[in-house]
Amino acid sequence: MPSAYLVLDDGRIFEGSSWAATGKTFGEAVFQTGMTGYQETLTDPSYHKQVVIMTAPHIGNTGVNDSDNESAKMWVAGFVVRNPSSVTSNWRAQNDLEAELIAQGIIGIQGVDTRAITRHLRDRGAMRVGIFSGLELTREEMVVEVRKAEAMAGSFLVRDVSTPRTIVIPAIGEKKFTVAALDLGIKGATPRALAERGVEVHVMPFDSTVAEIMAINPDGVFLSNGPGDPSTMTDVIEVVRELLLSEIPLFGICFGHQILGRALGFETYKLQFGHRGINQPVMDKNTGKVEITAHNHGFAVKAPTDSEFSTVYGRGEVTHVCLNDDVVEGLQLLDRPAFSVQYHPEAAAGPHDAAYLFDRFVDLMSAKVNA
Amino acid sequence: MGLDTTIKSVLVIGSGPIVIGQACEFDYSGTQACRVLRAEGIRVILVNSNPATIMTDPEFADATYIEPITPEIIERIIAHEKPDAVLATLGGQTALNAAIGLYERGTLKKYGVRLIGADVDAINRGENRELFRGIVEKVGGESAKSKICHTMEEIMDAVVLLKYPVVVRPSFTMGGLGSGIAFNEAELKQIAGAGLRHSPTSEVLLEESIIGWKEYELEVMRDRKDNVVIVCSIENLDPMGVHTGDSITVAPAMTLTDVEYQKLRDLSMDIIREVGVDTGGCNIQFAVNPDNGRIIVIEMNPRVSRSSALASKATGFPIAKIATKLAIGYTLDEIQNDITKVTPASFEPTLDYVVVKVPRFAFEKFADADPRLTTTMKSVGEAMAIGRSFPEALMKALRSLERKEAIFTWPNVGESELSSLLQAMRIPTEYRLQQVQKAMWAGASIEQVYEATRIDRWYLRQIEVINEQAAVIAQPGELSKDVLRAAKSQGFSDAQIGSLRGVSEEEVRKARHHLGIRPVYKTVDTCAAEFEAFTPYYYSSYEEETEVRPRTTPAVIILGSGPNRIGQGIEFDYSCVHASFTLREAGFETIMVNCNPETVSTDYDTSNRLYFEPLTLEDVLEVVHAETQAGPVLGVITQLGGQTPLGLAAGLKANGVTILGTSPEAINLAEERGAFGNILAEQGLSAPQFGMAASQLEATTIAHEIGYPVLVRPSFVLGGRGMEIVYDDVALGGFITRATDITPDHPVLVDRFLDNAIEIDVDALFDGHELFLGGVMEHIEEAGIHSGDSACVLPSMTVTDEQWDEIRIATEKIARGVDVRGLINIQFAIAENTLFVLEANPRASRTVPFVSKATGVPLAKAAARISVGSTISELRTEGLLPLLGDGVAKGISVKEAVLPWNRFRRTDGRGVDAVLGPEMRSTGEVMGVSPSFGESYAKSQIAAFGPLPKSGTVFISLADKEKAPGIEPAKGFSDLGFHILATDGTASYLRAHGIECTTVRKNSEGTGLMGEKTIVDIINAGEIDLVINTPVGRGTRADGWAIRTAAVQRSIPCITTTAGFSAAVDAITFLQSSPLSIKSLQEWLA
């Protein structure tokens, strides 16, 4: 098998073998600790421009199928695995993982010490990385190329992943509400979770104006997950601020949560290596209950966790924190119907513990309608 | 929420003797429970009849009762100790059943004791199949179609709807006891009939067959705030049809997408909530149809289980420890993850490695047992291995089993052999995976094997990958660095590579080291490296980066005993754990190497560092190398883990490793008969006459010289494997043919067999100058019964003071002659007033924990200290050993062995013969201690086999040579008021000696003309309370066998020796006169 190299910004190089598409690719190196759900990860737009290192040693065992995609294509910039499967075994599988990666031009590398890479990133932080597969380059040349790649901090990536035009996902069963979902890199599981609750979801381009949003007469607005640095999202933040004034129920997830945080006046910051996995313990501060949640974020909101805070939209509080490192995982306004979580209640991949948040959103919309 | 401060004292119920389906994993969980409770300042009261456990060490509880685990005894303990709560979810099915017993007796209510962990309602909802079905349905899950039956008529009606094959599962039994798959009416009658008898509620479940489906298990934990986490998913490589305990299992699940896995997770959470396990763990099993994903919920255990121990070791998440904390009020978020120290326990471990568990069987001990694997668990132990890929973990696991048949080989396989392999693998047996591997090596396709076995194609592909690698290794030409590296990362051992290349293991190792290819060690950290790990729990892998940290304190490496097997079990783990504890206290760092996930030694808390590695020369040498790189290493202790580490000692020494304690040369001296004979001769000690035979003819000649009966065996064995007493030339010849197959390199030993001798077992310490005699045990069964299967008593009952002195002197002479540094175990026999030395083993023995419990002297700890240079005199001053004299038993302690007869069936479905012999067959042991022999023996029998009858009918059938010694005890039973039944010969003999009895028909005589029943019919009808049946010579005589198996199947106590017969008289005499006393170990030793 031809050699391939994983080259880190700080000059550390891991030698492995070519896998999936060959060539070279760059991105932010992040590790994902889920033991299941590689297909969902690959197709999650939040991983745009990221080279994902899977800590689970065997990847591809169950192949890929059409129903577990989180978007229309694979987004990761590169895919790093220890042992790719040379066979597909699952009754739902429709294609081989490697074949699919090649078809979608995703460059991979296999046979590297993924645990060593993970420990490196944990200790030194997420950094730029390149995969060079099947190329004749010296080690120095590879490092130089990696250092020329763009960094994640300050990246504005939403334009790449957002829908160019509004797509309507019909409610399942009786339609109760209409929601405008700003697509900042939305995963398929989110509109599905809403639709199951009788919500018709209008997935709208990220740069939709308030007027365009209000034109569909929504009962609520949803801010999706997505890639990039939330501090670059000034226009969307302005839209959110206007929406907050209108008192329309608002729910944000992940990137959407960071945008709500910034709209409320909080700062966002880059975590050392982020949270990416499906085993993260989050405590709901109001109930004291712990939910095991799916995470995928490199940035977080800086907000006071020990007391209520006040904003121009009235009082608010941090509702959820990650028990591993006390990172803010949820916000809500107490005087207006708006809340958000940093993690993924839509799961896919991951546990369904936080699905109740979609009910909470529906309840907010009901309260608004009945008021 | 924090600690529930109303709980000031807790009674912990242990799991009793090691039996199939309930092994030392419950010592691991119980030990953790005791530690947690004591750390919280809670008074711990413990009941467990198993002396070989760490949890019954007096320092783990405030009051330790080594007493039978029966509701009656526990009630007396509760009355005496007045605990606030009872914790029964960590002692397996035994503890759970005892808790239900306490509830039903009204004991809990009477004394105001709470059941913590799971309440009786939750236990019932989890274990009662009908209730559980309802719960599964309620949460939207599906159960297999089934029918509960209480009679054979109901069973026959039900099968009409469910169709064959049909699964039979008795209620409230552990390890799947009594369950099986019936393919036709005859099988159904036999399996379901046994099931009805084994179930305490005479209830069996008949179920649609889901044989061949994928099987999964999820370990779930819940706290009182209703937080639920899944600790681990486990996938069975062997599809449905083989008991999980007998299956090769893999963690995490390998062949599920997230969507499918989350369905299992959702169901698990809904089920634990609905069953109402409020605080603690449970496991839930699922079957998944490989063709369409249909999920069937199979069952749940509302308690910590065998799989919980595996899951704890596989993930680093200590389920039992956390379950205990939850039971006393903490919530998951309040408990810290020990490994990361910064994150809470309310998370789900994620693995960046693969764990494979493989079962170890003991079919060779039960020659006539059906070797098919079914839903009744039959394995006696297990090994676990960790790797960065499935092939690596699997190959390590297979060599951890220490069976050459388990290790993959790549011979030429012919056409006809291929087709017979493909046929054979349809029926799961011990070596099915090896059949699969061999068939694929011979060209069988994944589809062909899948069709025959239903093993998931992903696993089959991994086997194929291993075979492809073997083909590359075998290619002629130089072995390149890349190929060697690839081979090592697929888990190939140096020995396997050597055999493929036609060179020795050592040559491969040398070449490998020359190329700089060595394993690195990764950490089991619960979080896939997301957080820093502070617990050095390592496994090897051929990767880039090692995580072994440098050290400065001198370290001692302790080699464990590997998978449990008959003859080498928890007793050896006990000694290893003790060594680790005491050496840590003495200021050393301890490094444990072991591969048995059930044990306390593989708890990451036990030693400073833990290497979860196979116990082979290669794997141990690499650990030694890695640790030598990390800091100073004093040496390796090999004398505590039984034959496994002992067998490695010479190889380690040859590779320059320091062996602490008794040297490999000294070990060899004791094991090599000629050399040992010289020592005995020099010291003027007698041994039974013996000879060493290299051929059939020689053996016969020696036997004639010595005179029959003779004891024959191959040299270098543990657990009496391949040992037999033969009475004539024919039997001798038959044995030689079989025995030389076992160890072709070693000759056969022919010993004089001492008829009617008293057998003595001695455990002693020697430091080169001084001897400390730990204990002199007297076997209750006469010589000829393997010491591991014989009951024994400490102090000895019939040994005179002079004989005792003689034994002590002989022990010292042997210890000095062999040059022991640490423990030595010697077996003596006294026959015709002469002391004979039977054998000496310069290592920790099976009886070390028993002697330590009975005398309060920690022999294994002392041995470990002697190994690193302390003297007995120093240890006396320090207080580890008594200041003066030898070990003195407090009270009279009886050890009894527990035998797994009820687990095995012959292929015709009938029981295997329940007769003792020189081959060890017991899986575990219990101890009874009291002021009198009768009471202690009674306790040991109750703990091992269940209640002894105080009155009723006893059936007596004695072999001719046992008739005279049987008169005394038979008279005893008559005097105790028992009605005696006997078959013709025995009956006339008894009557001739004035003992009244009723003659009954032998099985072979058939039913009488007037419809008189045979003894077997009478036993089956439940009209007999106790069976005394001594076998005739060696070999199964049909009548005796039919009697014994009928008794075993009906769980009627069955005694097969006259010595046991006499002891039973003492026991029942005591039981008739007064209730059993209770007294804690702390009081005994005070």
What features would you highlight for this structure?
heterodimer, A: 371 residues, alpha/beta, 11-stranded mixed sheet, 7-stranded mixed barrel, 10 helices, B: 37 helices
Characterization of this structure:
The complex is a heterodimer of chains A (371) and B (1086). Helix content of chain A is 23%, strand content 33%. By secondary structure, chain A is of the alpha/beta class. In chain A, α8 crosses α9. Chain A is globular, with a radius of gyration of 20 Å. Chain A starts with a strand and ends with a helix. Chain B is 38% helix and 19% strand. Chain B contains 37 helices and 39 strands. In chain B, the strands form seven sheets. In chain B, strands 14-13-10-11-12-15-16 form a seven-stranded antiparallel beta sheet, sandwiched between helices. The longest helix of chain B is centred in the N-terminal third of the chain and has 18 residues, at 258-275.
Number of helices in the DSSP assignment of chain A? 10
Kindly name the structural category of chain A.
alpha/beta
Query: How big a fraction of the residues of chain A is strand?
Result: 25-35%
Shape of chain A: globular
Q: How is the biggest beta sheet of chain A arranged?
A: 11 strands, mixed
Main beta sheet of chain B? 7 strands, antiparallel
First-residue to last-residue Cα separation of chain B: 38 Å
Strand proportion of chain B? 15-25%
Q: How many strand units of chain A?
A: 20
Cα gyration radius of chain B (Å): 28 Å
**Greatest chain-chain contact:** A-B, 54 and 57 residues
Concise account of the structure shown:
Chain A has helices at residues 38-42, 97-103, 114-124, 139-148, 158-161, 189-195, 210-215, 234-245, 255-263, 356-370; strands at 3-8, 13-20, 23-32, 50-54, 58-59, 78-81, 83-84, 107-110, 127-133, 167-169, 177-182, 199-204, 220-223, 250-253, 267-284, 290-302, 309-311, 314-322, 328-333, 338-341. By secondary structure, chain A is α/β, with parallel strands linked by helices.
